[in-house]
Design a protein that fits this description.
2 domains; SIR2/SIRT2 'Small Domain'; about 35% helix; binds ligand BJW; single chain; about 240 residues; 3-stranded antiparallel β-sheet; 9 strands; Rossmann fold
Length: about 240
């Protein structure tokens, strides 16, 4: 780890599981409680906007009741103390990285606390409900939807992410099943560019075999331990 200058970290729902947020694909997870086609596609939204707006209102409200955990805090410590470059990319729509102290977080699948106007296409910070069809604060149209990336839509800031992956020395994937692209492909993109790759996940993910190193267990333990190793190796 002595030559570590550029790290890209990708996080998924598993990093927020110990805070009490449901993951998607685990037993009892969100996709067992709701049909993915109904709540996480543009077609589902067009068919039944009330259902979709209610689903995201419920998750936004649940966010107010949970707190960041040791894994979020450890990544904030890494950002503050690592002397090289760190890009933290999350697939999560929660704000637990920010509340754990991270300052720079790239939300590739959007954010629960943001609304997207389908009329003027502007994004606005949003803390309230959407199912009551409030007006867009910018164009005043009652056309707000959750500012999240559904299946078939383009994730945010892909050029910036791919540029960082091409240049990184280490790609680390934390708490994600590796079931959803393009994020699931980042490990192979990083490896093709010569980076070391590390998986920190409760169990082997769908992409485990692609990583040069895998560690399995709860993120609340694995992430602080790994961050400690990185910061110690930079000091010595
Ligand atoms: C713990 C833990 C603990 C638990 N500690 N770990 C190539 C091949 C095939 C298909 C495609 C392809 N490219 C594109 C597609 C189509 C599609 C796709 O991937 N389909 C798959 C089903 C195959 N992708 C798309 O449509 C994407 N758009 C797109 O590709 O645009 C074109 C494009 C092309 C090329 C470049 C760029 C763009 C958009 C995908 C949007 C995903 N949206 C969602 C919903 C967001 C809003 C919301 O939150 O509701 O994003 S779906 C859902 O899955 C959510 C998540 O971010 C995402 C990933 O889930 P995640 O985070 O991995 O959670 P889980 O539950 O799956 O896994 C949790 C893991 O944690 C598990 O492994 C647990 O073991 C672990 N764990 N406790 C550590 N304590």
């Amino acid at each position: 780890m002595d030559d570590l200058r550029k790290i890209v970290v990708l996080t998924g729902a598993g990093i927020s599981a110990e805070s009490g947020i449901d993951t998607f694909r685990s037993a009892g997870g969100l996709w067992e409680q709701h049909r993915v086609e109904d709540v996480a596609t543009p077609e589902g939204f067009a068919r039944d906007p009330d259902l979709v707006l209610g689903f995201y209102d419920m998750r936004r409200a649940a966010l107010a009741k949970v707190q960041p955990n040791d894994a979020h805090r450890a990544l904030a410590k890494l950002e503050a103390e690592f002397s090289g470059e760190l890009l933290l990319v999350t697939q999560n729509v929660d704000d637990l990285h920010e509340r754990g102290g991270s300052r720079q977080v790239l939300h590739m699948h959007g954010e629960l606390k943001s609304a997207l106007c389908t009329s003027c296409e502007m994004r606005s910070p949003w803390d309230a409900t959407l199912s009551d069809r409030p007006n867009c604060p910018i164009c005043q149209a009652p056309s707000l939807r959750p500012d999240v990336v559904w299946f078939g839509e383009m994730p945010y800031q892909m050029e910036r992410i791919y540029a960082a992956i091409r240049e990184c020395d280490l790609f680390v994937s934390i708490g994600t099943s590796g079931a959803v692209y393009p994020a699931a492909g980042f490990v192979r993109d990083a490896k093709d560019c010569g980076a070391a790759t590390l998986e920190l996940n409760l169990e082997p993910s769908e992409g485990s075999a692609s990583f040069t190193e895998t560690r399995h267990g709860p993120a609340g333990q694995l992430v602080p331990q790994w961050v400690g190793e990185v910061l110690d190796s930079a000091i010595s």
